[in-house]
Design brief:
The protein is mostly helical. Helix content is about 70%, strand content about 0%. Helix 9 packs antiparallel against helix 10. It is globular and about 70 Å long.
Amino acid sequence: MDERPVESSVEWVFREERGRLLATLVRRFGDLDLAEDVTSEAIEAALEHWPAEGVPDRPGAWLLTTARRKAVDRLRRDQAYAARLAVLQVEADRAAPAPPADAGGDLPDERLQLFFTCAHPALAAEDRGALTLRCLAGLTTAEVARAFLLPSATMAQRIVRAKKKIREARIPFRVPGADELPERLPGVLQVIYSIFTEGYAASSGARLQRLDLAEEAIRLARILRGLLPSEREVAGLLALMLLVHARREARTGPDGEIVLLDDQDRGRWDQSMIEEGGDLVLVALTGGPPGPYGVQAAIAALHDEAADVASTDWPQIVALYDVLLALAPSPVVALNRAAAVAMRDGPEAGLALLDELAGEPRLRGYHPYPTARADLLCRLGRFPEAAAAYREALELAGTEPERAHLRRRLHAVETPGA
């Protein structure tokens, strides 16, 4: 039995094994709802048995055996359901392409297999990401909603819709052939980056960062990079995540409080990650027009290379945001560009650009927008307006470190002479 404390061991096992277990069951039974149900039942059984009996030496195998038994029991009780699954499995087997003669085996992680499966082109782009994040990566519906800047109710509907589409269109759960991988790749990259984003800035809870999610996203990107070494956007995504994650130790203080980029001890940044990310940026930007992840990685590299905020190459960062807006226009990119313009040209210029985004629906409920406005208003000495913007951001912030930071900023502008 595992000698670690049962509570921490159980949490670790569930985090490590849930996605792999679900992917294995989906591949075995070809039904996502069934796989989710028996995965949950197996975890419930573990919570019942492991505290008394200890964590098994092979917890993943224990969970898989338990889940398979529960699935078989369910199919025996429902013969019509079992018959439907059998038909789907036969059709899936017929549709699956034969592996190429020189194939190096399956994808190196079963979760990654399911990433590609859930990125099937028959699903709407936003549904692919939502389904994979919820079912495979184990994010809650609220966390997935945060990743896509949507209300939780809307995201729940998308997840249900995606599952229904898979059932009705009889989309097979299989590893795509080599000729299909480029078509599926953008959806997979989006999913991995969404996981990283939730890890970088959690949508709720007591901590700013969820390092387990960020590191899981990096691990999956490394696997994908090994699988598709010639895909420059894979290199760009991995570079971006490494360059941002390199700052993780300096982003929070001893009590978990937020430390802004201006105040971070850059000596605590992970230089090995920065070097690796910088090398990958060159790969991502060489050999053709850049992709969105490569451009974002280049921006992150400029931040990491600077000695401090004042010496950062803000003109080059703004120029890169111009390129990014042309490649992948979005209100969040426009928001980040406005912040960079404020650093290059002054707070008035940045605030004017932010005000142009005031009616953008996707920024409603997105607390970095009122936070950015408040910061620029504060720099301009417009303290009552800054206080109002900080209050708006405070209502929207999801984690306690973010709320504590905004409360401090609000107090400072409410009592500027104190």
